[in-house]
Design a protein that fits this description.
Elements: E1 12-17, H1 23-35, E2 39-44, H2 48-51, H3 54-60, H4 78-85, E3 88-94, H5 96-104, H6 110-116, E4 122-126, H7 130-134, H8 136-147, E5 151-152, E6 156-159, E7 165-169, H9 173-188, E8 196-201, E9 206-207, E10 213-214, H10 221-232, E11 236-241, E12 255-259, H11 263-274, E13 279-282, E14 289-291, E15 309-311, H12 315-322, E16 328-335, H13 339-349, E17 354-359, E18 371-378, E19 384-390, H14 391-406
Parallel strand pairs: 1-2, 1-3, 3-4, 4-5, 8-11, 8-13, 11-12, 13-16, 16-17
Antiparallel strand pairs: 6-7, 9-10, 14-15, 17-18, 18-19
The protein binds cytidine-5'-triphosphate (CTP).
Length: 412
């Protein structure tokens, strides 16, 4: 996806480049953003200029690259000028040092000062050696920034500088540029503007008695990421959730949250909200069985109890059966065996427009991880694989496919 069908003003992007070998890839990110019609202002840290010259960025950018907080010929206060006018700040590559300084709130160079002087969304693209990436200090700084609403595009596994290999490689410029474009178009044009999206998230809790519950390992992270990205793309979003995670500050006010606990409560809320929705996404792990209710706490002295299970309503199946013309229904399938075959069958049986399948037995996939690896299935299209990446990126990929379907393929 590269652009929305809406007419919009030229998005303004600050491209921060820190001192790492992947700085050369930032040149290609810059070129792609310019080709897509963005006004791009590069900021290079002093160390970045050791890897790629300032002239290269200046030649391709909308205005000369900046490297210093002081002595700018165009404005006496470049950090506030850049920060206040940006629709998005992208930092690629983001080194461990820049990440630490940003997390600490330091502002001793133009890049960190601009990050502090801005209310624009921020997309950080870390790149470094695996040992550095895995350091608790780096991960804690990233967790702090994530909590504050900063979007982090996780590095990939692959060859690194010096002949090493592992996690830490900057994703391809194409991936970074298309993510950045999704974000700015979400703010200015909105691929999903005018559309109402209902997302379910988290694992349901089925009461055994007034004290005990049966639940599952779903954290709700993927559903929250979908709700946040849909809001950034301009949709009106309702999140029906059993989890109470913190929503990213830039979109928290534009997402209505309906708190539920059991499968029955989730069914009631989702089906009610879905009656006026254009897109319904069932990311929740809904219990297939619930417990015949007991109002009294089961006592140990009564002996080992037998718990009778009864089936719950299949919400996704109901949504698929009741689908209005033009309404899009998306299901998830957590599988451990024959992932594709099981998911294809589920797509058809539940009459979904899209089904997101993941192999939850694989490392780093599904329940409670920050990352995911999925295949997006839809009727009449080839399966679309999304390699191991952040749950935000999975959300972007899914919502791009949904937007494409809605707009009839009028954007790429
Ligand atoms: N789902 C639902 N209502 C249920 C159970 C599941 O809406 N009572 C939805 C989930 O939110 C998910 C999809 O159905 O989007 C797939 O759920 P899953 O449990 O993987 O599939 P099932 O059809 O229950 O099949 P099985 O568990 O046998 O694989």
């Amino acid at each position: 996806m590269t652009s929305s069908t809406h007419k919009q003003e030229q998005p303004r992007i600050v491209l921060g480049v820190a001192g790492g070998i992947a700085a050369y890839k930032a040149v290609e990110v810059l070129r792609r953003l310019r080709d897509a019609g963005c006004f791009v202002s590069p900021i290079l840290t002093p160390d970045a200029t050791r890897f790629v010259g300032e002239v290269t960025f200046s030649a391709l950018a909308s205005e000369p690259a900046r490297t210093k907080l002081y002595g700018d010929p165009t404005t006496p206060i470049p950090h506030t000028y850049l920060g206040q006018n940006a629709d998005l700040i992208v930092v690629a590559p983001a080194t461990a040092h820049v990440i630490a300084r940003y997390a600490m709130g330091l502002s001793d160079d133009l890049l960190t000062a601009t990050l502090l002087a801005s209310r624009a969304p921020v997309l950080l693209c870390p790149a470094m050696h695996t040992e550095m990436w895995e350091q608790p200090s780096v991960q804690e700084n990233l967790a702090t920034l994530r909590r504050r609403g900063v979007m982090i595009l996780e590095p990939e596994e692959g060859p690194l500088a010096g002949g090493d290999s592992g996690k830490g490689r900057l994703p391809d410029p194409e991936v970074i540029a298309s993510l950045a474009l999704d974000i700015v178009h979400g703010r200015s044009g909105g691929l999903l503007r005018g559309h109402r999206v209902v997302v379910s998230a988290g694992g349901t809790r089925e009461a055994i008695d007034p004290v005990r519950v049966i639940t599952n390992r779903s954290s709700g992270k993927q559903g929250y990421a979908i709700a946040e990205v849909a809001a950034r793309l301009g949709a009106e979003v309702t999140l029906v959730s059993t989890a109470s995670l913190t929503l990213a500050p830039d979109v928290a006010r534009s997402i209505a949250v309906v708190a539920v606990s059991s499968a029955a409560e989730m069914a009631e809320a989702v089906l009610r909200e879905a009656s006026t929705a254009d897109i319904v996404i069932m990311a929740a792990a809904v219990a297939d069985f619930t417990v015949a209710p007991t109002t009294h706490k089961i006592k140990k002295d009564d002996g080992i109890p037998s718990i009778a299970l009864v089936p719950t309503q299949d919400i996704l199946l109901t949504l698929g059966a009741q689908k209005r013309p033009g309404q899009i229904v998306v299901g998830f399938a957590a599988e451990t065996d024959d992932v594709l075959a099981n998911a294809q069958a589920k797509l058809l049986r539940k009459n979904c427009d899209f089904l997101v399948a993941n192999d939850v037995s694989a490392d780093g996939v599904g329940f409670d991880h920050a990352t995911n690896e999925v295949v997006i299935l839809s009727v009449g299209a080839e399966p679309y694989s999304v390699e191991m990446t952040s749950k935000e990126q999975v959300a972007f990929e899914l919502l791009s496919k949904v937007a494409e379907r809605i707009h009839g393929g009028t954007h790429g």
